[in-house]
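The step that takes the researchers longest sounds almost clerical: writing a folded protein down as plain text. Below is the pair of lines this work produces for a single protein:

——
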Amino acid sequence: MRLRAIRLVAWVVSGVILALTLSPTNPTPPVSVAHVDKLMHALAFFMWAALVTAGWRWPGWLVLIVAAGFGGVIELVQPLTGRDAELADLGADMVGAAAGFWLGLRLRAWTRRQKLRDKVA
């Protein structure tokens, strides 16, 4: 049950990332924080990679390749929606994905321990 919930949330996060990055207007809040757009990219891909790693148990190299493809396609399509494509956004996606993969490994271990506890109880 936990695995299905993690997978469902991963799909929802994927959809939210697509909706926010491909919307014609930039959803970046009007905050005076430098590089807030890059922080948002990193956070989105952090969550995505953590959920994918925990939900599908993909190896790290596959998570990073899929994240690069996902982020790359977004950057290629953004100009069609009136947004700017930036290589720095893809870099932020990859930094977030790498950190998310690490967290996903921790989530994977946690779900494994929970499953063992459920069997013992």
About this structure: The radius of gyration is 16 Å.
